[in-house]
Amino acid sequence: MENPKVNEHIENTLSGEGKRWVREFVDWMREHYPELEEVISFQMPTFKLGSGANRHYLSFHAAKEHFSFHTMDFDFIDALRTKLAKPGKGKGCVQVRFDDEQGKQVLFSAIPELIQRAGQ
Question: Could you tell me the pTM of the whole model?
Fold first, then answer.
């Protein structure tokens, strides 16, 4: 379900490559998983996954030189780290530099698995 607040956040708080990457990931999620609820959580576009005890989320954030992919599925994040050249060190997230197109594709290809793990 598209949320206008997510659009406002992207347009009003992001710029440059960060804005482009976040917009691309949000648009991809909307196209492939329109049934997922989207919100702004901790200043990030967030998609709610699963329900009850299996409730997780997927959030996107852009910093100055990298894109962050966040979820509370820590085992998934640990596995995803092994597929990225420089995944960063944040808890519950991996990071991909804006010049890493291969890393971007790894993230896109990981999303369906994460959603399946959440029971969607």
Answer: 0.93
